[in-house]
Specification:
This protein has about 450 residues and is mostly helical. The chain has helices at about 5, 10-30, 35-45, 45-60, 65-75, 75-95, 105-130, 135-165, 170-185, 195-200, 210-225, 230-245, 250-260, 265-270, 270-285, 295-315, 325-355, 360-370, 370-390, 400-410, 425-450. The protein contains 21 helices and no strands.
Length: about 450
């Protein structure tokens, strides 16, 4: 067997874990892409309430893995992964069958706990089933499966919503989670991974420490990260970038459905971003490898407010492009620009964060570097609720006469103006453009402040 062929030879648990990860991502994104409309149109929450619910849910998903990963080490990967899939499947099923206020919140909390278990378990399995020589390739396959699952979930969400309605999306996710649970029960044997990991480390893995000790260490690690002023500043600054990105799941679906109509495809528009990232991130990173990481990040933060401005202004200047609604054209172009900007940001941001880490603390700093997503989901999703309520309200709240005018305008596919309640719908994108501009200026200031000798 050739060396290249051997480099692709991973244990069955590696491939099983990656397929499970793809299934979990398909279930999650197939539901999450339309969570904001689901909470208002099906459950009955207001835009503002839905903003708080969705924002807290998505943000906490970035915090819980710090604890759930330790729990998985204690109880064992297979047992923890089966619990995760059972929680996910049960949570999705409960939302689909009983979409009522209060009950939905409990079901979302269940999904949040289950989802927080999956990522550290799968990532840990990938690490254990690969040695140092082939670990980069192993994680590239893992990242590919994540994107394949997310793409598949959002792609399938549109025909399910169109044919059956929003209420069926969580039931679709429950079915996928159930299949994944069966796959874990039949095929996932993480004990296979010990031999590979032991070869890499040269000794048996230490017994997992008590959970209380792990929590104490987490507190100590967090205190240490807080002393890294540059990392904290970059987490906050780049959070402005991700606030705009998070609108693909909060503002964008409602904005599209309310200004274009139910026949629009916000689920598919959201796939423009990962498609562009997969196609462009490697060549762009290679092309710009001589740029300083902060310079590359500055390009990204300079582009991101332009994406929001494009979504706001293009429908008012371009008009319809053939059969495409002007909002559709603007949304696709704006999201494509976001994906292009992401190619400049993510690899170099992670590179910069790794350089800030003290020796033997790289994993710690890389974990906390992702807190910019926590901030973005919390701020972006909640702000989205207020902006939608102000500029692009739920049609169900309109007076009867205005609702009739609204439905008549939608029937003209963008050739007739929407009622006065939507005259300034595009203003919400101006707000996000302003946030992106502030982040851009803040990064310029960061560059000026940090341009000093390393000894200082």
């Amino acid at each position: 067997m050739s060396h290249d062929a051997r480099s692709w030879s991973f244990p069955l648990s590696f491939w099983t874990a990656n397929v499970i990860e793809a299934a979990e991502r398909a279930a999650y994104y197939g539901w999450f892409i339309m969570l904001a409309p689901f909470l208002t149109s099906v459950v009955g929450y207001s835009d503002i309430e839905a903003g708080y619910i969705g924002g807290c849910f998505a943000a906490l998903l970035y915090l819980l893995p710090f604890v759930s990963g330790a729990f998985a080490d204690r109880v064992g990967y297979r047992r923890a992964l089966m619990l995760a899939m059972a929680l996910l499947g049960g949570g999705y099923l409960a939302i689909g069958l009983v979409p009522r206020k209060g009950w939905v919140l409990m079901a979302m909390a269940t999904i949040m706990v289950g989802g927080s278990l999956v990522k550290p378990i799968i990532a840990g399995t990938v690490a254990r089933t690969s040695d140092k020589e082939h670990r980069a390739r192993a994680f590239s396959l893992f990242y590919m499966m994540v994107n394949i699952g997310a793409f598949a979930g959002k792609t399938l969400a549109k025909p399910i919503r169109s044919a059956l309605g929003l209420s069926w999306l969580p039931l679709f996710s429950a079915a996928v989670a159930a299949v994944a649970l069966v796959g874990v029960a039949l095929l996932y044997r993480p004990e296979e991974t010990d031999s590979v990991a032991d070869k890499d480390k040269g000794k048996d893995r230490d017994k997992a420490p008590p959970l209380a000790e792990v929590l104490r260490q987490l507190r100590a690690d967090f205190a240490q990260v807080l002393h890294s002023g540059r990392l904290i500043a970059l987490i906050i600054i780049t959070g402005g970038f991700w606030i705009i990105q998070s609108q693909m799941y909060s503002s964008m679906p409602k904005f599209v459905l309310r200004t274009v109509g139910a026949a629009a495809s916000p689920e598919w528009y959201a796939n423009v971003n990962p498609t562009l990232v997969v196609l462009c991130v490697v060549p762009l990173t290679q092309l710009c490898r001589r740029l300083q990481p902060v310079t590359s990040m500055t390009i990204a933060l300079g582009l991101i407010p332009l994406s929001a401005l494009a979504i706001a202004l293009l429908p008012r200047t371009l008009g319809a492009v053939g059969p495409l609604h002007p909002v559709t054209v603007a949304m696709v172009l704006g999201i494509a620009l976001q994906g292009f900007a992401e190619c400049f940001l993510t690899p170099r941001y992670l590179e910069y964060a790794s350089h800030l880490a003290p020796k033997d603390k790289e994993a710690l700093y890389m974990g906390y570097a992702h807190l910019n997503h926590f901030l973005a989901w919390l701020v972006g999703y909640i702000l989205s609720g207020y902006l939608l309520n102000a500029f692009c309200p739920n049609p169900e709240t309109l007076p009867a006469a205005e609702l009739a005018a609204y439905n008549a305008a939608l029937a003209t596919a963008g050739t007739s103006a929407l009622p006065a309640a939507y005259a300034h719908a595009h203003y919400l994108w101006f707000v996000f453009a302003a946030i992106g501009s502030c982040a851009f200026v803040a990064l310029l200031v960061f560059q000026l402040v940090t341009r000093r000798p390393a000894s200082r």
